[in-house]
Amino acid sequence: MDAETGAILALQILALCSIVAALLAYLMRQSRNATDEYETRNKRHVLVTSCDTSVGLQIAVALYEAGYKVFAGLLDPCGMSPSMKILRAIEQQREKEEDGPVDASYGNPQDPEVRAHRQIVPLELDSTREDSLRACLDAVRAKLPAGEDGLWAVVHTGGLALPGVIERQPSSAWESMLRHNLVAPLRTARMFIPLLRVKRGRIILLGDSTTSYGTKAGTGLVAFSASKKAVEGAADALKSELQSSGVDVVLLKPPPVNPLILYSSPVLKTSDVESGIVSSEGTWTAPVSTQAIQNSLMPALTSPCPRMSYEMVARSRLFCK
C-alpha cells in the first residue's frame, strides 16, 4: 500500500469514527432529554376545576394516567357522586397495581417513580364562587410538596348547557350559563395566576363545541354557544395580557359531541343480570375518545411554545389560530 492510499484509508476510518461518535452522542442526549422531560413532567401539578362534568373527569383521569399529580375540583369530594365513585375505583386499581409485580421500564404506570407522583387529590371547588376558589387555592398550597409553591397548569372544565329556544328561554338561564361558562373561568384564572406564574405554567380553557357538533346544534343552544364564543375571545385577550408574566393560555376545541353530554355528570354503567353483562364498580362511558384527549391535551401541556388552540380530534390534525 502506497502512502497516498494509506492516507485516504486513514481519513475514511477517521470520518467513520466521527460519525459513530456523533451518533452515540446524539442517542445519549436524546435519552437524557427524555429522562429529564419525564422527571420534570412527573413533578408538575395540575388542577382540573370541575371533575363533576364528564369532560372534566375524563381530562383528570387522562392526566393521572400520564403521570401527573392532579388536584380534582369537585362540588362534594366526600360524597357519593358518580365522579367520586369512578375516582375511588381508580384509586383501588392503583393500590392493586402497587401490590402487583413491578415493571422496571421507564414510564410504565407500575414504575416506582410514577407511583410516587401519579395521584388524584379530590378538593372541594365551585368555580362560580369566589370563597370556594380562595379555599381551594389554600388547599392546593397546603398539599404541594415542601418547597413547592406553584402549579404547572389549571384546566377549567366547568360548563353549563341549558337548552331552550331563545324566544322562550328565560333570561335567568342566560345569566346562569354566562356565570358558569364565562365568569367562572375568568375568576379561576385570576385566583390561580400567582401559582402559575411561579412555574411559568399555563391556563387551559374549553371553547365552543356547537359549531363542530352540527347545524342542528344551534337550535336551543344559542345562549350556550354565545357564552363559549366569549370564552374563546377572552382566552385570546388573556394570552396577550399574561405574555410578559410567562403564563400561557391555551384553548381546547371540543369535538362534535353534544355539549349536554360533555358538561353533564358521568353516567355509570350498570349490570344487566338478564343478559349476563356485569359492569365493574366505577365503570362509565367517556364522551370523548382517548386519542382525541391525547392529541390535544398533551401538546397543550407539554409543548414549550403551545399553539393558541388545539382541536380535540381523534386523528393527528391540530388546529392553530
UniProtKB/TrEMBL annotation:
Sequence intervals crossing the membrane: 6-27
UniProt record, GO biological process: steroid metabolic process
Keywords on record: Membrane, Transmembrane, Transmembrane helix
Keyword match Lipid metabolism: no
InterPro entries found in the cross-reference section: NAD(P)-bd_dom_sf, SDR_fam
Keyword Transmembrane helix: yes
UniProt-listed SUPFAM superfamilies: NAD(P)-binding Rossmann-fold domains
Annotated segments matching region Disordered: 92-111
GO-annotated molecular function: oxidoreductase activity
Protein name: D-beta-hydroxybutyrate dehydrogenase, mitochondrial
Organism: Ceratina calcarata
